[in-house]
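User: Predict the structure for this protein chain, please.
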Amino acid sequence: MIADKMHGTEGRITIPGVGALIGEMFNWQLYSEDGKTYVLKASCNDIHDSLWEAAGDSRRIEVSLGRNSWWEAKPIEGATISRNGRNFTVKTVTLEKMETH
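Assistant: Here is the predicted structure, written as structure tokens:
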């Protein structure tokens, strides 16, 4: 676990392999309720509805934790994802450092 709470202004949701951009975040926050996993709350400039639906579990959520430090917020089995317009919440994610962005 990196920290109990984090926030940022840069992130995105993609469909890996195809390179499709579902949405870009302008605000996100991660916080832990159990000291092992995180809850991610994010706001996007825009979310492409059809891509969001089509991607399903194959969505990749990436957040920037500083200069050239990108991490994937990976939902674990049983995670819940809720969305309200351009805002979404993912309960129960882990962070995995990405090699390149």
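Strands lie at 5-8, 11-15, 20-31, 38-47, 60-64, 70-84, 87-97.
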